[in-house]
Design brief:
Length: 452
């Protein structure tokens, strides 16, 4: 009988019906057993023409407002169903076909800085459960939708006895009112993208809008010593003479190789031209007092006396060695006073020096601003010193140095602690090759204070 059946020709319509059934069945079973019934892959273009695939997961870039808007706008343009969770404005929106279908308030999120801080990124609705029991918090979370590990979108949680949790309780989830959570739950699909954004997510950056003031110096640089943000600069990597800014490195080497209490005999070689002559050959002066002369009145006599203890050649070698150690790759010293044209550096190198002074040798800065409060070495023997620093009377001035030679023209390095927003920020202003260092530095300082 079976032989007869198989010998009988099968009509073509039967074959087509069987093929169609197999295809439909295969599609049905593939979709049925597919773990994520809703999926979406796409590419995002950055500022350049290059496009990169945007993967699901935690994306630090989403803390950037422009990037977040770019991703959201792409979803809207392509009429994607997705959930937007704006943790900055505490608003959650459900988009259907690229349009806002529902907008609700976020009642709580994870505490910033904690290990349960709600993560920014692009995620997916991984599941849906009408009442999920949290083994961690021992609470029920109505209308729960996990989107990243232990992070959920859900309604107001409650304990097994029906008591609602306190408003201060949070495990990092995105909490909605129970009523709102149900509406979102009904609109959400497993696999639907969840775009989580927080513009305050773990960054220490400021948004700066530069309006460059008039600065006539040939080279200048104004920057934050903590986050390296550059407020303004011009040819800051050019190598030029720096005049008496050299003495800042002279002070560093002196304090790192000579005891501040030690008294040095003023050598005959120290009888050189200087701004204010105060030392005589054979006189004994402590290193602490010499630093005051060096940093306040820019004394060439003090610079040579300090160098004489180790020998002028050895001292200058140590100055150059220190510059290399600080990453001042375009810097060279030929004397401790900065008198020679061969004492050269760049604003960028001096920025590296400024970071070292601020973080490791701040007492040098405080001597230069006359704000030193550690009197372990007593008062300076010179009570009538004149402070040549331009900003000596500015309460935000932490310290610095000025210089001037024919080749270098006027130079200045001044460090301030400025209140920007709610923080005190260390800002250095460096100007080289200036005809008016006071005016140039003041214009830069006023610019920073007025615009940030």
């Amino acid at each position: 009988m079976f032989n007869k059946i198989f010998r009988t020709p099968i009509p073509s319509w039967v074959i087509l019906a069987i093929v169609a059934l197999v295809i439909l069945s295969g599609t049905f079973f593939l979709n049925y057993f597919k773990k994520v019934p809703y999926d979406y892959n796409f590419f995002v273009g950055f500022l350049s023409e290059q496009k990169e695939q945007f993967n699901y997961g935690s994306w630090p870039a989403l803390q950037n407002t422009d990037f977040f808007n770019q991703v959201r706008d792409k979803f809207v343009k392509e009429k994607v169903d997705f959930i937007e969770s704006d943790l900055s404005k505490m608003v959650l929106r459900v988009y259907v076909g690229g349009e806002v279908k529902k907008e609700v308030k976020i009642l709580s999120k994870g505490k910033e800085g904690s290990w349960w801080e709600t993560p920014a990124g692009l995620y997916k609705i991984e599941g849906k459960e009408k009442s999920h029991f949290s083994s961690f918090g021992k609470v029920y979370m109505p209308w729960s939708m996990p989107f990243q590990g232990n992070f959920f979108i859900h309604g107001w949680p409650y304990y097994p006895d029906g008591t609602e949790v306190d408003s201060t309780y949070s495990g990092g989830c995105i909490r909605l009112s129970t009523e709102d959570a149900k509406e979102v739950f009904d609109l959400a699909q497993q696999g639907m993208p969840v775009l989580v954004y927080d513009d305050g997510f773990g960054n220490d950056n400021f948004v700066y809008q530069p309006k460059i003031p008039l600065v006539l110096a040939k080279n200048y640089l104004a920057a934050d010593l903590k986050n390296n943000f550059v407020f303004m600069e011009k040819e800051s990597n050019e190598i030029v003479p720096i005049a008496s800014l050299t003495k800042l490195v002279t002070a560093v080497v002196a304090t790192e190789y000579i005891n501040l209490e030690k008294k040095l005999e003023v050598p005959k070689a120290a009888s050189v031209f200087t701004s204010k002559s105060r030392l005589k050959a054979g006189q004994e002066v402590s290193v602490f007092d010499l630093l005051h002369l060096l940093l306040l009145e820019s004394s060439n006599e003090a610079a040579i006396t300090l160098a004489s203890y180790l020998g002028p050649i050895r001292f200058v070698e140590l100055m150059n060695k220190k510059a290399v150690a600080l990453g001042m790759k375009n810097t060279k010293f030929i004397d401790p006073a900065g008198s020679g044209e061969g004492n050269i550096s760049s604003a960028e190198d001096l920025f590296a020096l400024s970071k070292y002074l601020y973080n490791n040798r701040s007492f040098i800065l405080r001597i230069s601003s006359e704000k030193i409060n550690n009197l372990a070495y007593g008062e300076s023997s010179f009570s009538d010193l004149e402070n040549f620093n331009v900003f000596k009377d500015d309460p935000d001035f932490l310290g610095g140095k000025v210089g001037e030679t024919k080749e270098a023209r006027q130079t200045i390095l001044s460090i301030f602690e400025l209140k920007i927003g709610l923080e005190i920020r260390p800002v250095v202003i460096i100007a080289l090759g200036s005809e008016d260092r006071a005016g140039d530095a003041a214009n830069i300082l006023n610019y920073v204070r007025s615009n940030y």
